[in-house]
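Deliverable D5.2: sample structural annotation.
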Amino acid sequence: VQLQASGGGLVQTGGSLRLSCAASGSIFGIREWGWYRQVPGNPRELVAAITSGSGTPYADSVKDRFTISRDNSKNTLYLQMNSLKPEDTAVYYCHLGMAAGITYDFWGQGTLVTVSS
């Protein structure tokens, strides 16, 4: 499985971006498909995810601003980010977790989002 993330860039405070994560390969038993982000010196944190049995969790800091969605026909995950703030600046990673007896975890290469004040 390969994950190709795109859509990051530089945006001003209050602006919007849409991240995409295209998955290719043998995909099955998805237990989680989501976005995480990381800033230097901090652990990677969940932003939002679509899960098989635990709903669609969002980080409190992005609720009502970010929306995660999925296009099954294109095997693509999206993250619509609105009302961006400087504290949203991070490298955003796409994660795909699958389970079929054993678990599999795949990460995309990361896409940088920079929000200027």
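Annotation notes: The CA atoms of residues 33 and 96 lie 5 Å apart. The first strand starts at residue 2 and ends at 6.
The annotation will be released with the project's public dataset once the embargo ends.
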